[in-house]
Design brief:
The protein is an alpha/beta fold. It is built from 14 helices and eleven strands.
Length: 506
C-alpha cells in the first residue's frame, strides 16, 4: 500500500492505515509503519527522520485502533475499573483554619520540566519543522526566522545547560529551603533520537548538579514521562528483562540514594514510586504518573491500576490517617489529564482522605495553573487542589521559571497546607541582551484579575490574548481535577482543550 497522491485528506490517510492494519502478519507490520511514515512525511507533519518514531511500540491492530478507531483494532485502555477503599468510616471533616500569626512556616523549592538539550546551539534556527529546534541540525535561520538566544529562546526549544545551572545558582541564593520537590522531565524533546545511555547520562548530570548547588538539602523526586526511551514507555513491573524499566529505576535509585531511605528505594526500583517521612507528622508520596498516561502504550496490556499503585497509595493514606500524619502527593502528570478511570479513582481517593492529603504538586503542562477537587456528594465544596507549577524550560514559547511554596510549618497541630507560593522567572528578552550574566529569575467577574492570571500562567510571555470562549474554557479546566470533567469543558464550550494540551506536551 503506497500513498502516491501529493495531497491527502484525513479520510484517505485513515483508509490507507485501516487497510494495512486489518491483517496482523509480520510483513503487514512493516506495511503499517511504511504507510504511517509516508503519510506523516507527505502531510508535512514533521521531517522524514522524525515521522516513523511515534508508533514504533504498537502492533498493527493497535496502531489502527489508535489512529482510526475501535472499528479496525483493539486499543482498550479505557475500560472502567475501581480501587477498593477500606470499610473504615471517613472521619468528620474539620474546616481548615489559618495558622496563628508568627507560626513556623516551611519554605519548599519546587522544580519541574527542566528539559536540558545537550545540543542547544546559539544562533541556530529557532523556527524549524522538527519537534525541537535551536540545534545545529535545525540549520541557520533564514531572514524571516529567529535565531537561538544565549540563555534560551521563545520557540520549540529547550535549554542549554548554562541556563539550568544559572537557575540552580539563583535558587540556592533565594533560599534557604527546608526541602525540595522535583517532578521530573530531565531530557529534551528530541524524542526520536534518544538512547538509554543518553537518558541515564542526563539523569546523572542533572541530579549531581542539583546536589552540588543545593548541598545536603533533602530532595524528593518524581518521574516524568520523558525519562524513558521511547518517550512515555513505562511497562508495568510484571514486564521483565530488557523491555522492563529496570535500567532506569536502578540508576535513579543509585543517584537518589543520598536523599531517600532504603525502603523508598525498594519501591522506586519496583515501580518508580515511593513514600518518605519528611518531618514528624508530614509524609510525602511520590507517584509514577506514567501509569495513568494514555500515551503509555504499555497500558494496553493492562490499564487496571498498573503496578497496584493506587491501592498502595490507599494503604499509605490509611496508615497516615490512623497516625495523624499529613500527606503531600507529588507527581509529574496532573491527575485531570490522566486516563479517565485512573483519574476517577484518584479523585475518589482524594475525597476519602481529604483530612490527610494537604498538598498535591505536579508539573508537565509547563504552565502556572491548578486543578480543583470537590466533594463528590455535592460537587460544590472544595476538598483539595492540585498545584501545577511552571517549567524550567522555555518549551514552548515561555520564560524559564521555578516555584516556591510556603507551607504551614513544623509544629504540633500544623495543617501542612500551602499558605502561599511564589514563581521566579527569567525574562529571556532582557537576559539575551546581556549574555555575560543573569542576576535573577474570581476570574470570570474581574477581567483584570483573569488577564493577570493569563500573563502569569505563561510566565510573563503571552503570544496571544485570551478572551471570550478561551477565557471560559480555561476557567472550566481550573475547576477540573478529573479527566471526564475536562471532556465536559470541551463539550460545553466547543473547544479542544484536552487535545491541545497533549499536542503541545507529548
Amino acid at each position: 500500500m503506497v500513498l502516491s497522491s501529493p495531497m491527502y485528506s484525513d479520510v484517505t490517510v485513515e483508509r490507507a492505515v485501516g487497510e494495512a492494519c486489518n491483517q496482523t502478519s509480520d510483513v503487514n507490520e512493516e506495511r503499517v509503519a511504511r504507510v504511517v511514515g509516508e503519510a506523516c512525511i507527505r502531510l508535512h507533519l514533521a521531517e522524514e527522520r522524525v515521522c516513523p518514531f511515534g508508533l514504533s511500540l504498537l502492533w498493527p491492530s493497535e496502531a489502527c485502533a489508535l489512529l482510526v478507531g475501535r472499528s479496525c483494532g483493539r486499543f482498550d485502555i479505557y475500560a472502567p475499573w475501581n480501587v477498593t477503599l477500606p470499610r473504615i468510616p471517613k472521619p468528620p471533616v474539620t474546616p481548615p483554619t489559618p495558622p496563628k500569626p508568627g507560626a513556623p512556616q516551611s519554605k519548599v523549592l519546587f522544580l519541574t520540566d527542566i528539559h536540558w538539550d545537550q545540543e542547544y546551539a546559539v544562533g541556530s534556527s529557532a523556527d524549524c519543522k522538527d519537534p525541537l529546534c535551536c540545534r545545529n541540525e535545525s540549520g541557520p535561520p533564514s531572514w524571516r526566522q529567529r535565531g537561538a538566544g544565549f540563555w534560551g529562546s521563545y520557540s520549540k526549544c529547550d535549554l542549554p545547560l548554562r541556563t539550568v545551572e544559572n537557575m540552580l545558582e539563583n535558587a540556592a541564593r533565594t533560599g534557604p529551603w527546608d526541602w525540595v520537590y522535583w517532578t521530573g522531565d530531565i531530557p529534551a524533546h528530541n524524542v526520536w533520537s534518544q538512547t538509554r545511555k543518553q537518558q541515564l547520562s542526563e539523569l546523572t548530570v542533572i541530579t549531581r548538579l542539583i546536589h552540588s548547588h543545593l548541598g545536603n538539602l533533602k530532595v524528593y523526586p518524581a518521574i516524568g514521562n520523558h525519562e524513558s526511551t521511547p518517550v512515555n514507555s513505562f511497562p508495568p513491573p510484571f514486564v521483565h528483562g530488557n523491555r522492563s524499566s529496570r535500567w532506569l529505576y536502578d540508576t535513579m535509585a543509585e543517584e537518589w540514594a543520598p536523599w531517600l531511605p532504603e525502603q523508598a528505594l525498594k519501591t522506586l526500583r519496583h515501580g518508580g514510586f515511593y513514600t518518605v517521612e519528611v518531618q514528624p507528622g508530614l509524609r510525602v508520596v511520590s507517584l509514577n504518573m506514567n501509569f495513568c498516561a494514555r500515551e503509555n502504550y504499555w497500558l494496553m496490556v493492562n490499564s487496571t491500576d498498573p503496578a497496584n499503585q493506587l491501592q498502595w497509595l490507599i494503604h499509605i493514606l490509611q496508615a497516615s490517617e490512623e497516625k495523624g500524619e499529613r500527606v503531600h502527593i507529588i507527581g509529574h502528570i496532573p491527575p485531570g489529564l490522566c486516563l479517565s478511570s485512573w483519574s476517577w479513582n484518584y479523585y475518589h481517593i482524594v475525597n476519602r482522605y481529604e483530612g490527610t492529603i494537604t498538598g498535591q504538586f505536579f508539573g508537565h503542562t509547563h504552565m502556572d495553573e491548578f486543578q480543583m477537587f470537590y466533594d463528590e456528594a455535592t460537587m460544590t465544596r472544595a476538598v483539595g487542589v492540585a498545584f501545577i507549577a511552571p517549567s524550567v524550560t522555555t518549551y514552548v514559547n515561555l520564560n524559564p521559571g521555578y516555584r516556591v511554596y510556603l507551607v504551614d510549618g513544623n509544629y504540633k497541630g500544623s495543617s501542612r497546607f500551602v499558605l502561599d507560593h511564589e514563581t521566579y522567572i527569567l525574562n529571556l528578552t532582557e537576559a539575551n541582551r546581556q549574555p555575560e550574566g543573569v542576576s535573577s529569575l474570581t476570574f470570570l467577574r474581574d477581567d483584570r484579575v483573569f488577564q493577570r492570571f493569563w500573563y502569569l500562567r505563561h510566565k510573563g510571555h503571552v503570544s496571544e490574548p485570551c478572551i471570550d470562549a478561551c477565557k471560559t474554557t480555561v476557567v472550566c479546566s481550573l475547576r477540573s481535577g478529573r479527566y471526564d470533567e475536562l471532556q465536559q469543558c470541551d463539550l460545553l464550550f466547543r473547544g479542544d482543550m484536552v487535545a491541545a494540551v497533549r499536542k503541545t506536551l507529548c
